[in-house]
Amino acid sequence: MTGKVYLVGAGPGDPELLTLKALRLLNTADAVLYDELVSPEILGLLSSTVQLHNVGKRCGQKKISQEEINFLLTTLAAAGLQVVRLKSGDPLIFGRAGEEIESLRRAGIEYEIVPGVTAALGAAATVQIPLTHRRESSALVLLTGHRAGNSQEDDWSKLVSSSATVVIYMPGHRHGDIASRLRRAGVAGETPCAIVSRATTREQQVQVTTIEALPGAPQLPAPTLLVIGDVVRFAEQQDPSFFSTLGTLPAERLVPDEEAVS
Questions:
Q1: Domain residues of the chain, as ranges?
Q2: Which CATH code is given to the segment(s) 4-114?
Q3: Which residue has the higher pLDDT, 173 or 253?
Q4: Do domains 4-114 and 119-261 have the same CATH topology?
Q5: Which of 26, 106, 117, 243 stands 20 to 30 A from 87 (CA)?
Q6: Does 218 score more than 50 pLDDT?
Q7: Cis peptide before 223 (omega within 30 of 0)
Q8: Does position 3 have pLDDT exceeding 50, yes or no?
Q9: Per-residue DSSP letters for 50-96?
């Protein structure tokens, strides 16, 4: 009997952000292949009888190649097991789900995709940054700061607009390089941005700065992502002087939309 593979999003870290379907599948799986970034709290929900396989790739250190992951998925499912491929965030956003789907299709293995809360949504929610706003941002662009070794860098000028909020996944510690690429793409130096480290977990840290000052920003623990745009000014902060160097939004911009209160 052939099993089935579930490509499941684990969310950004907080176990309470798991979907009900993800939790049900984790409770009934025969085998779970999990990413390095899946939080220990989520792994702690798994049965003691489930086969656990750490197939994480992080900071350039690979325990296992993507080809080996693909082989393991198809082999376990072909043996009749119910297999969960547990990915941090959402499996379809910078999660290599496309490569695994191709492999499963070639092998004739049944699979299902279970979406999860991607890191951009989790980070924005905890820092209270609206990723879109009627008066500030009409679009959302998700980029990655890391590409495969033989891939050319994307031309961000074709992707970034003045009215878009930009979220960069996996910016790493290359703040200077990221800032230069954004400036070349037309992003103004005074544009505010937020570095969010370990979003939604107890270890979350946030640093707000500008694109111009980004090269001198502190190096926060991985994983991090970078949120860029005027919507960053809405972030909740304890320090009253937090945005002192950025200025503040005009008061009328902070008034709730009429439609929202009528």
A1: 4-114, 119-261
A2: 3.40.1010.10
A3: 173
A4: no
A5: 106
A6: yes
A7: yes
A8: yes
A9: SEEEE--EETTEESS-HHHHHHHHHHHHHTT-EEEEEESB-TTSSS-
Look up tokens 């700061």; give the residue.
145
Instruction: Locate all alpha helices (DSSP H) within the chain, ordered by sequence.
Output: 20-28, 40-43, 66-78, 97-107, 119-127, 175-184, 258-261
Active site residues: 35, 57
Strands 224-228 and 4-9 turn out to be unpaired
**Would you tell me the crossing angle of helices 97-107 and 66-78 to the nearest 10 degrees?**
40
Instruction: Report the C-alpha gap between 15 and 3 in whole angstroms.
Output: 26
Helix-strand-coil split of the chain, %, nearest 5: 30, 25, 45
Q: How far apart, in Å, are the Cα atoms of 7 and each of 96, 116, 121?
A: 10, 10, 19
Range 220-235 average pLDDT: 94
Q: Which CATH class is domain 119-261?
A: alpha beta
User: Residue 112 contacts by C-beta under 8 Å, 6 or more apart in sequence?
Assistant: 4, 5, 6, 7
Predicted confidence (pLDDT) per residue in 91-150, tens digit? 999 999 999 999 999 999 999 999 999 999 999 999 999 999 988 898 999 999 876 555
Residue 205 · residue 197 · CB < 8 Å: yes
- Residue 231 tokens read as 């919507």
